[in-house]
Amino acid sequence: MKKQDKIIMRRILITLFAVLFIGWFLFWPLNKYIESPGTADSLRSYVKIKGHPDRQKGSFMITSVYLQQARPITYLWAKMTPYNTIENKQDVTGGQSNATFNKVQDFYMQSAINEAIANAYKAAHQEVSKRYLGIYVLEVEKNSKFKNDIKVGDTITKVNGHHFDTAQGFQKYIAKRKIGTPLTVTYLHDGHQHTVTKPLVKIASSRAGIGIVLTDNVKVHTKIPIKVNPGQLGGPSGGLMFTLQIYQQLTGHDLRHGRKIAGTGTINPDGSIGEIGGIDKKVIAAHKAGAKIFFAPYVKPSKLLLKYEEQHMTNYQMAKKTAEKAAPGMKVIPVSSFTDAVKYLETHP
């Protein structure tokens, strides 16, 4: 091969290597996820209640965390940018496919909306009722004999022809049976009813079970029609802010007084507020959107609790620390219940 041909070949190989490296650097998906500050969006356009429009100034804002699968370039960017964290894919998705993970997050959001409606209507002395549909399947264990039939997103409505009004009712009934005993399960998949009979397996508590991770599937009915559209948002952490938005629209009480009020936290049937992940990122998102008040879930810190908390700080501790450093002028308010949030707004106009 002539010297000139060798030079040309070398240049071709170098160019090819450079193109492949750039492609890998920009597009190759890593087994990591990046969590970064998302957005803080006004809930005014999310909630529609017949005869109760939101005409008050200011806004209640739902905060989010932006989640993306890492590429080499975004991994490097995340390492260099404050308030970004890198998590293992397994820790984020639990080994689920993206489609399954998104389906579960959508269900968590809808459950949060249902509880928000129930809490707000009850607080506003408006008619509301719940109907228990059954067990929503969050995960099917590998050892489950039902794994080829029941899928994530299905709702179990009966076992051996019996329907119960709580998950505990289903669990107690099944726990009385022996491992290996056949169980007939009726379930809904994509709106269609199916029935399957399989033997029970040994679960973590050394008793008989179907072999699933579950939560309640509840339908809420109201006399005053309401529609809540969360758009692309998922997860349970918007419960508190949806409750505040719905409550203000129903009652007509001006809790905002023209202010932009952000926050986060799950909402439970008794009105208590639960902790969430990524609250530092949500504080940043709220600050960028101009919020002056941020509601953070409060739990009493203890050595045991802090051992397992994110960065060994409770939600309130982390939110307060983040605001002091990166969100000057924002008040972080600790709340343990929906009532706490309402009382604060009523006494601090």
How would you describe what is shown here?
By secondary structure, the protein is an alpha+beta fold. Helices cover 36% and strands 28% of the residues. It has 10 helices and 17 strands. The strands form 5 sheets. The chain has a 6-stranded mixed sheet, with helices on both faces. Strands 8-7-6-5-11 form a 5-stranded antiparallel sheet. β14 and β15 form a beta hairpin. α7 runs parallel beside α9. The longest helix is centred in the first third of the chain and has 26 residues. The model has no long low-confidence stretch (mean pLDDT 93).
* Secondary-structure element pattern, one letter each: HEEEHEHHEEHEEEEEEHEEEHEHHEH
Strand content: 25-35%
Distance between the termini: 84 Å
Q: Which class best fits the helix and strand makeup?
A: alpha+beta
The best one-word shape is globular
Q: Helicity range of the residues?
A: 25-40%
* Count of strand segments: 17
Q: Could you report the average pLDDT, rounded to the nearest whole number?
A: 93
Radius of gyration: 25 Å
Going across the biggest sheet, name each strand in turn.
4-1-3-13-16-17
Model regions low in confidence, pLDDT < 50 over at least 5 residues: none
Summarize the biggest pleated sheet.
6 strands, mixed
- Structure annotation, total helices: 10
Pfam family, one: PDZ_2
EC number: 3.4.21.53
Domain Lon proteolytic: 234-348
Catalytic activity: Hydrolysis of proteins in presence of ATP
